[in-house]
Amino acid sequence: METILQHAQGLVYSLLCLMPSAYQKASLKALLGLFLDAQGHALPAHTSVKSASSLSRFLNRYRWPTLSVIRTTRQAILQQIATHLPHAKIPIRILIDLTTLEKSGKFWHLSTPTSAPQAPDPWIRFLNGKRGLHLVVLYLVVGEWRVPRSFRVWRGKGNAYPAQLGCKLLATVPKSLLNARVVIVQADTEFGTVEFLKAVRSRSWRPVVGLRSNRTLQDGRCLKELYRHAKRGLQVYLKDIDSPLTVSWFWLKRADGKRELRFVASTYPYSGAYLVQLGSKRWAIEGFFKTAKHQFGLHCFGQGTKLGVYRWLILSLIAYLLAHWIDQWSLPPVLDWKIASRLALQTLLPSIIWFQVLKQLRMSSEIAAQHGFEIILKSLPDPAYWERCKI
């Protein structure tokens, strides 16, 4: 398992080498340290290494290769997974879902459309009663590895809707990763469209998606009518879909204590009980969303440009990936994101820990003086010095 640590260290080193100056390398370290602090409120003002204004310039103004950072990270992910592939019989699961990074401020640069013909579409929108930045995320589950592969921003009505963005994300999955394995694509009812199902089926993958209870069958019946009149695992033909779908259903207990009838379908003839079991595994991406937001500050962006927001999201997801790798490297896994993040910070970015210690010492020097003590820091001599002393 030592190679997992080597992959994480190699990724950090490669990302730092992409920065064009020492100043920007320090800013990248500060931002990764900010995300790995895992306090849930990753605000630039909270870092002890750089000022908030310098981090803002790094995200919004400075020219560093954002696309190269993405390519380098994806290449490192593929190398790491190839080194630690699970058993060939374990399927690869692709999870696609929509999440909202809620915002209550004005964000005029992201939310107010202008009358200029070349003005970019705003990013902050209302969807399902929530105002914020809406992301369609593709999340890979390969054995024990959890990888956020890519995302797309929903830009509102008149643009590609979430299911279409999901189809575009499917095209980004590298064929080298699949390696002739069974691939299961899991998604919520938002993606149970004819277009999405055809996109999955055209790749010979197995979709397991939610369906709305009011979907119409080819015989004119409603999907909800199958409940109480058929057995789970029944094969049906939906309207506008020529291939049969295996359908099952279950009762979902909501937060208010009430139950809701949910339907799940697949083009593969799974049994009714197993299809429900597969459908429940889709909630793994919901756990990832909570972790990315509340531990790694995915939703805490406040940059003045879309480039700054985009870079913030990317670096937050990279911090999550590093913490996940370090968690798998530790034996046994710590199973605690705060502990894993702190361990990743100590292992991969020890200079950030050292700056935090220095800041704490400066703040404590007056307290030490009040009690008659003085804090003195001395540099350790070269290890070769002690060897010469022994001779």
What is the compact description of this entry?
The protein is α+β, with helices and mostly antiparallel strands. It has 14 helices and nine strands. Helix 1 packs antiparallel against helix 11.
Structural account:
With 391 residues, the chain is of the alpha+beta class. Strands 1, 2, 3, 4, 5, 6, 7, 8 and 9 form a 9-stranded mixed beta sheet that branches. The relative contact order is 0.14. The longest helix is centred in the C-terminal third of the chain and has 24 residues. It has 2 domains: 174 residues, no CATH class; 209 residues, Transposase Inhibitor Protein From Tn5, Chain A, domain 1. The protein is built from 14 helices and 9 strands.
How many domains in all?
Answer: 2
Radius of gyration: 25 Å
Number of helices: 14
Average the pLDDT over all residues and give the rounded result: 85
Q: State the distance separating the first and last CA atoms.
A: 39 Å
Classify the fold: give the CATH topology of the largest domain: Transposase Inhibitor Protein From Tn5, Chain A, domain 1
CATH class of the largest domain: Alpha Beta
Percent strand:
15-25%
Can you write the helix and strand succession as a string? HHHHEHEEEHHEHEEEEHHHHHH
Low-confidence runs of at least 5 consecutive residues? none
Q: Write the CATH homologous superfamily of the largest domain.
A: Transposase Inhibitor Protein From Tn5, Chain A, domain 1
Structural class: alpha+beta
The CATH architecture assignment of the largest domain turns out to be Alpha-Beta Complex
| Main sheet properties | 9 strands, mixed
Extended strand count? 9
What is the global morphology?
elongated
What share of the residues lie within helices? 40-55%
